[in-house]
Fold this sequence. Notes:
Number of strands: 8
Oligomer: single chain
Low-confidence stretches: none
Distance between the termini: 21 Å
Mean pLDDT: 94
Strand content: 5-15%
Structural class: alpha/beta
Order of helices and strands: HHHHHEHEHEHEHEHEHEEH
Bound molecules: guanosine-5'-diphosphate
Largest sheet: 8 strands, mixed
Helix content: 40-55%
Amino acid sequence: MSEKKGLFARLREGLQKTRDALTGRVDTLVKETRKIDEEFYEELEDILLLSDCGMKATMTIMDELRARVEAGKVKDAGEARNILKQIMVEQMDIPRPPLKWPMVMMVVGVNGVGKTTTIGKLALRFQSIGRRIILCAADTFRAAAAEQLTVWSQRARVPIVKHAEGADPAAVVFDGIKSAKSQGADLLIVDTAGRLHNKKNLMDELNKMRRVIDREWPEAEVRCMLVLDATTGQNGLAQARAFKEVCEVGGIILTKLDGTAKGGIALAIRQELEVPVWYIGVGEGIDDLQPFNAKEFVEALF
Length: 302
Ligand code: GDP
């Protein structure tokens, strides 16, 4: 219970910038509103757009809000605020398939989004619930990538499989699977190269890794997790669309929410990509990677 409370407090802290920008403005608007009219709706719409909720999510939320306010004969702006909150939860609550073991988690995303840090946090997180993890340094494009991942493997005290710079990523995955099987691991977390500027190469590379997994470890569940940096806003959405073209994105990990006032991007992702957000990063600490829960997220915002 106390750990849960601690996590929620961290979540609240991490979302502070967005809370100030989004909920702070909503509250001011609510206070100043005598009656719910066109002006109220327009201002609310602006607030959502400014928080990077995106056009599609904003329109869906506003349509739903108007309909419910009308149907419920709601006159009080405070009550409209509660309805807004409810709608936001519903909008983001996409069911996530349960985790199945053994699993290969392929972590994709462009450089700088927080991929390595996130892998380290995930390793510690799964280890703390008793899972056996092996890291696989399949970003052989940059020498620094394997080095950085090695540092995290030491922090998390989990084994790492790596090859020399320039090696075939699929060969690293092959060895990673061999280790995972011989050590009875539950989870192989694969770091991949974020070369989105060369889509064809990236797609070939990811497909080749996927074939190796399917052949060598057919019983393993494969999940492709895309890491997006929340501070990049709409550009992050563009990255996601591009990644959806090169692999089957099963989930999103949204990092650096603590560094932006535009956390509404979580809503935009849901509306525009139809892919669930699995984890969110709300800081650089180990507990600052949390499973995404729509209700808690909205509670922390309001
Ligand atoms: P990579 O190039 O994608 O592997 O990115 P890194 O894992 O090296 O992270 C890039 C920077 O982002 C580092 O300084 C991390 O500490 C930082 N970072 C990662 N996740 C978060 C987060 O959730 N919040 C904050 N504030 N910083 C983060």
